[in-house]
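Listing S7. Sequence submitted for prediction.
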Amino acid sequence: MDVREAKERVLEMARQHDVKFVRLWFTDILGQLKSINITVEELPEALEDGVNFDGSSIEGFARADESDMIAMPDPTTFAVLPWRPQEKRVARLFCDISLPSGEPFEGDPRYVLKRNLRRAAELGYTFYVGPELEFFYFQSAESPQVLDRGGYFDLTPLDEATDLRRDTVLILEEMDIAVEHSHHEGAPSQHEIDLHYADALTMADAVMTARLVIKEVALKYGVYATFMPKPLADVNGSGMHVNQSLFRGERNAFYDPNDPQHLSSLARSYVAGLLRHAPEICLVTNQWVNSYKRLVPGTGPLGFEAPVYVSWSFRNRADLIRVPQVRPGREEAMRIEYRAPDAACNPYLAFAAMLAAGLQGIEAEYPCPPPAEGNVYQLTEEERRAMGITRLPESLWEAIQVAESSELLRRCLGDHIFYKLIENKKLEWAEYRRQVTDYEIRRYLPIL
């Protein structure tokens, strides 16, 4: 379908579904969803010329003296919002941001991902991802009061959120976002929804949509859903493990029928690229102060089941990268699972950064280290050092410092977002450092 046909299809679908309002969606550099609302009468002009807005009001976009931006709807992303009224309905379209000249705006996260996907396409690859979104349901946004005391895969009566997940999945599927699994996660009141793999641009749009749908359904039930990486100190945090693979046409380039583990040499180079550059891209995959409260060792054999060390394996869930086993005849399912990101990241930038790291490993033919044997948490520091296993950044400040010297991340994001993101994160860290926490009051006030 060409662009003209896609635009005509949007107008026809709007008529068929009694759409009155259209939300034009895009994100700032932190992955916060933004929306410009128009009526359906304005839709034909918006599809042709876009909608002007003030970019200086969007985080990381532009200064006041260069603020004119255009939100250009992508007609392939039209979807009706099922949770809105069924008469005079509301639809959405994701937008690409451009300058008045028509040039793509380099500060648009969606453009960053599209640019990195073009690089993959020039090498002959399509990048597929399948994220696993973890989140908590709490009584309200004011305090982390759980709804249940359930654990992995628990059902009623412990899992009080079964209907919330059910409604969420039904809405996502009505919006053509396929869901593979949904279940209670390991911590109290923690849940997971796994999206069926798709090309990375489609999936980044889907993640933005899913995060909103999860929150909207929670509000309908009078509770609050959060993707905060670590809201509860003594249980697992919430991540967004990203299953990923490269395809050449219809063939999975990560699959090799002659390899004992069916993992191709190209996939091993991709893994090597992710391992080498993992600390550099942490600022994108784990962008908040709170993200690094999740990436800590715990007391159990797998810690809090979040990666701390830069290692990979075929089985162990303590490693940064896991290669799931695939059943015979399912070569399309061959993938690697990157376990560092959390669902509070900007998915456009996170997918772009992971792809850039993996492609660098392929193009530079990085040698892949041997997979970790056993549990990396149970090794001594000396043993890990002897195996060449390093750590991910331990704080946002450390992630900023590593990212700031990364040529790969600067090339991936482009200068505009690279410098704006680092500037924003330095301000966040400075603000965080000024805080006096409840822990400090409890720990030090009585004795100092």
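Caption to Listing S7: primary sequence and predicted structure tokens for the chain studied. Residues 3-105 form a domain with the Ubiquitin-like (UB roll) fold (CATH 3.10.20.70). Residues 172 and 209 are 8 Å apart (CA to CA).
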